[in-house]
Amino acid sequence: MQFQYGPGDSLVNKYDSKTGIYQYVNAKDSLVTKKLHLTELELSYLHHKVADLGFWDFPENQVNAKDSVDAAGNKPLHYYIAFNYKRKSKKVWYDKAYDGPQKLVEADGMVIKEIQKILDEAEAREKK
Questions:
Q1: Sign of CA dihedral 99, 100, 101, 106
Q2: Nearest CA-CA partner of 60 in 87, 21, 24, 100
Q3: CA–CA separation, 26 vs 52, rounded Å?
Q4: Distance from C-alpha of 25 to C-alpha of 127, rounded to nearest angstrom
Q5: Per-residue pLDDT of the chain (128 residues; tens, 9 = 90+)
Q6: Which of 17, 20, 77, 124 is most exposed, with the fewest beta carbons within 10 Å of its own?
């Protein structure tokens, strides 16, 4: 699994389950890079959760114009999510300001929330 996000084209926050490299900007605007390995149970949970949310049927490109800005003049968050297996893979580019069907936008948000939740839980586990 690969999960990347950031404002505009800057996908500075990244996680790759194959390498375990987790990079993100913390609350102090510092770039943190560490190894974070997800368990087989966590990866299986994510696989089943995104499947239940319809991820495999999501359109690959859910991005508005690259130069779009939100009401405050900020570039919206862009996400790249990929699940890769031996026989199949799926990748989705998602723009937080995407103006597609509401059900799809909600499902995208739920996929992102689930991935971030698992990463947060794994990071807390490894701090102990």
A1: negative
A2: 100
A3: 31
A4: 18
A5: 999 999 878 899 999 999 999 999 999 999 999 999 999 999 999 999 999 999 999 999 998 765 667 667 778 899 999 999 989 999 999 998 888 999 999 999 999 999 999 999 999 998 87
A6: 124
Provide, for the chain, the percentages of residues in helix, strand and coil under a 3-state DSSP scheme, each rounded to the nearest 5: 35, 30, 40
The identity of residue 94, as a single letter, is Y
Q: Which residues of 80-91 are buried (b: 16+ CB within 10 A; e: fewer)?
A: ebebeeeeeebe
- Across the beta sheet with 2-7, what order do the strands follow? 31-35, 21-25, 13-16, 2-7, 77-84, 89-95, 61-62
For residue 68, give both structure tokens.
């779009």
State whether the Cα torsion 45-53-27-36 is positive or negative.
Answer: positive
Given a contact cutoff of 8 angstroms between Cβ atoms, the answer to whether 47 and 79 are in contact is no
Residue 60, helix vs strand vs coil? coil
Beta strands in the chain (DSSP E): 2-7, 13-16, 21-25, 31-35, 61-62, 77-84, 89-95
